[in-house]
Amino acid sequence: MAEEMITVTGDLQFEAWRQKVLPPVEEVRPSVWSIPVPFPNNPMRYTLCYALIGEDAGSGSVVVVDPGWASAEGWEALTQGLALAGVSTEAVSGIVVTHLHPDHLGLASRLRTASGAWVALGEQEVLPSGWAADADKHAIKDAERYRNWGVPADRLTEVTFGAADWAQMARMQEPQLRLSDGAYVPAVGLRLRVIATPGHTPGHICLFDEKNNLLLTGDHILPRITPHISLEMHSPINPVADYLSSLDVLENLQTQDANTALEVLPAHEYRFDGLSQRLAELRQHTLARSAEVQSVINSGTARNVWDVASKLTWSRGFDSLGSFALRLAMAETASHLVYLQSQGAGLDFQITEVPEAPVTGTE
What we know:
35% of the residues lie in helices and 16% in strands. The chain is of the alpha/beta class and 363 residues long. Strand 11 (214-218), helix 8 and strand 12 (263-266) form a beta-alpha-beta unit. The N and C termini lie far apart (53 Å). Residues 354-363 have low confidence and may be disordered.
């Protein structure tokens, strides 16, 4: 029996992805618009921002989801896309960010300034607010963690965040709204239900557009690649387990009405049908990665996280990884080691201290 595949529904997006160009602004459904915002100097190339218009553009019913990376080019793309949708920046009433990564959150502050709109994040998303005073402490702890993971002394500065990095992250402001699982985005004429999907980040959320049977998935579900799952200093204890559970949550959503297929609107690449198939692929890929980590553990040759990571398969080879890419590789490896420990695997080395409990806040 042939394996089921997803069906690309964003044909223009797919072709643009193949040609390595920016896709066009599109009206996916009446009053639901896809607006590509450039993501410079990154293989993902753009973030798919979505603008949803409720009863009318002047009644507090325009919601922008994931406005994209902050740049002059990105701002121009966003404002021009909104104009094609018949919306001025001033008419935007709400900004929902699926998670705090800068290719999603970056333009939220500028758009809020231009519109007066509220900004919302998931209830459990971890923000570095208030960390500025402890920037030196965070830098020391970060270096200690990666040293314990076996990163060579001459690579530590390359991989870790210094005090200036932590202080810069601490300037991120709390959102005006925190969205809990099952809540509806407060916008007139829209039925956007929040679905908590931790894993890629602690407070990642998806949005189910009940009126149009659309699922906006941020980075949780992408058609071609698997989102990065990291064990970071302020992340939950077991992000891989969280991610697998979040896949199950969306599987349950899909099976509520087996006769109606959801169209998936991701934040990168292109939209598609076939959620169940893609969920199965992502689950299989994640578990296969854990199995590869387990095989390295079983070999008895690993003394630390670095040893494990260096023996795993990486698309461009472990030796090619440097700077932030190397940090991500180490944090991904550690996340799978934590998951395997939770499944009963024994380790001959300590991964690190138990991560601090996530801190959330509301205003």
